[in-house]
Design a protein that fits this description.
single chain; globular; two-stranded antiparallel sheet; 193 residues
């Protein structure tokens, strides 16, 4: 679990650097909000940063950390017209769930506003937003770090935006889907100052 958690946050960090590089408007707005945070940083201050929360949630929605979650059916249920018996192995394509057009408007687009109070698209279904798995962490298949890992991402975003960075030119940032988590084909090289 510790290794998987390291991969999860690494994938989120890569998405943060690439998406904020591509979206200067989001970067500027987030930087302005984060400029008011105290030093040293506190969890309470992070929780009072609504746009940070929106950006963090959008990064977690679009980041293809793992393609599927797995488990066993605890009871027989029906899904999409198919009966799934108790005890069967069940695989959930979490990435595809996060890209459903009936839940998220323009699902391929990086859009932190989808998590704003005006839109709150993640509330369209109880499992519409489940980057760390669904249900209760003690009784369902949800990552034990479901609270810690997003906090780690928030701290990374604060630290990243306290600096300037540029992604070095000439690198292929298309994801290599043969890796878990999928990573940019040429890695991710950046200059940070």
């Amino acid at each position: 679990h510790i290794v998987v958690a390291g991969l999860i946050v690494w994938a989120w960090f890569v998405s943060a650097a690439t998406e904020l590089e591509r979206h200067a408007d989001v970067r500027a707005r987030l930087r302005a909000e984060l400029a008011a945070l105290p030093a040293p940083l506190t969890v309470a201050a992070l929780m009072r940063s609504p746009y940070l929360r929106q950006v963090s949630m959008e990064l977690r929605r679009i980041s293809p950390v793992v393609q599927v979650f797995f488990g066993k059916a605890r009871e027989t249920f029906e899904f999409a017209g198919h009966l799934v018996p108790k005890g069967w192995s069940v695989f959930w394509g979490i990435r595809s769930s996060h890209l459903r057009g009936e839940i998220y408007a323009e699902p391929e687009k990086f859009d932190p506003e989808r998590f704003s109070p005006a839109r709150h698209e993640e509330q369209a279904h109880e499992h519409a937003f489940a980057p760390n798995g669904a249900g209760d962490a003690h009784r369902a298949h949800k990552c034990a770090g479901y609270e810690y890992a997003p906090l780690f991402l928030d701290v990374f975003l604060v630290e990243l935006l306290r600096h300037e960075w540029t992604l070095l030119p000439g690198q292929d940032l298309a994801l290599d889907w043969s890796k878990i988590p999928p990573a940019p084909r040429d890695g991710l090289r950046a200059r940070v100052s």
